[in-house]
User: Which sequence fits this backbone?
């Protein structure tokens, strides 16, 4: 029996497609900057989608032609429960209505792109890949209408860097997006360079650009910094390649974004790799009280850590919490179920 041969070129295409799905997943979870209206932006940035929906509905009743309110309603419907297909579909319909009524308003195209990114997470690989072109064109249109948009420029650059050339990917186009704002928006250009370095696996260059970013209070920039920091830290953490650098990155993230769970969670992984179980547990317990904890396997690792210490009661409680988490990765949930079953 002959072993099927897959050409290196084909392998790279498949790998790129898989990487693209990971990117689309991040696009679906980032509540990027969209609104000029401070109240709407504040509600979205805080993840208060129930309040955002209420505010959008109130504004639309007063003025049906309010483009920002229309986009806000789309995003509120989309993000309030991304696992609810009906609300996600309602968000898509609202985004379409927003674009139809306000074709020259960037905010509508931004809302449409973010809704589509969320939809693509739940699609099969083939269907999601067929939608990459639509996502790209939506970001392009948003950027054409608002060239100063941080979100549109950065997300479009990431898309160019991630998808295969046959699907519209282009490192040169990402570099053009960076060069266009190098003087006018230096921090936007820098975060794009961070992603370019990551795509080229130039980790030292990526770290240098990342650490050179100025402190920011902008939610979208903070999201980009967090995701890039986590990506780089994982490289250093893998196979205990450089635990000191991984620890330094996680410490910086925990210091600069103390309300987010990712920094503390990352530190727990470093301590676990060093065999310091008590410290790992301390940071996991801290992480599970912070924003974004439900998107990380915090309780799964906490269960494993308590089990390693022989504390079966605490391990059982952690596993049960993790299994009940609707956002948990199914593969991790299955592992947690097996561990829980062994506890009896």
Assistant:
């Amino acid at each position: 029996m002959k072993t099927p041969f897959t050409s290196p070129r084909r392998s790279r295409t498949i790998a790129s497609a898989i990487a693209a799905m990971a990117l689309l997943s991040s696009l679906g979870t980032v509540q990027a900057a969209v609104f000029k209206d401070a109240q709407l932006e504040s509600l979205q940035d805080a993840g208060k989608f129930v309040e955002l929906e209420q505010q959008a509905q109130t504004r639309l009743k007063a003025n049906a032609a309010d483009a920002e309110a229309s986009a806000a309603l789309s995003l509120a419907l989309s993000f309030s429960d991304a696992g609810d297909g009906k609300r996600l579909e309602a968000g898509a319909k609202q985004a379409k209505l927003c674009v139809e009524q306000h074709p020259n308003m960037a905010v509508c195209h931004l809302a449409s792109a973010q809704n589509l990114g969320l939809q693509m997470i739940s699609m099969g690989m083939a269907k999601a890949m067929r939608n990459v072109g639509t996502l790209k064109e939506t970001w392009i249109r948003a950027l054409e209408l608002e060239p100063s948009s941080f979100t549109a420029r950065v997300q479009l650059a990431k898309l160019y860097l991630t998808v295969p050339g046959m699907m519209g990917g282009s490192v040169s186009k990402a570099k053009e997006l960076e060069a266009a704002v190098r003087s006018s928006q230096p921090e936007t250009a820098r975060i794009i360079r961070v992603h370019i370095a990551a795509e080229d696996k130039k980790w030292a260059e990526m770290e240098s650009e990342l650490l050179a970013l100025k402190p920011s209070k902008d939610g979208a920039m903070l999201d980009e910094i967090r995701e890039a920091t986590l990506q780089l830290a994982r490289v250093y953490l893998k196979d205990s390649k450089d635990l000191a650098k991984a620890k330094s990155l996680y410490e910086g993230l925990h210091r600069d974004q103390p309300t987010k769970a990712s920094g503390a969670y990352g530190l727990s992984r470093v301590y676990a790799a060093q065999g310091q179980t008590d410290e790992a547990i301390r940071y996991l317990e801290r992480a599970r009280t912070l924003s974004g904890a439900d998107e990380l396997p915090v309780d799964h690792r906490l269960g494993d850590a308590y089990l390693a210490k022989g504390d079966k009661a605490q391990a059982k409680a952690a596993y049960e919490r993790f299994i009940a988490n609707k956002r948990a990765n199914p593969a991790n949930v299955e592992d947690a179920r097996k561990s829980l079953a062994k506890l009896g």
Notes: The CA atoms of residues 167 and 301 lie 37 Å apart. Residues 8-29 form the longest helix (22 residues). The two ends are 46 Å apart (CA to CA). Confidence is low (pLDDT under 50) at residues 1-22, 24-31.
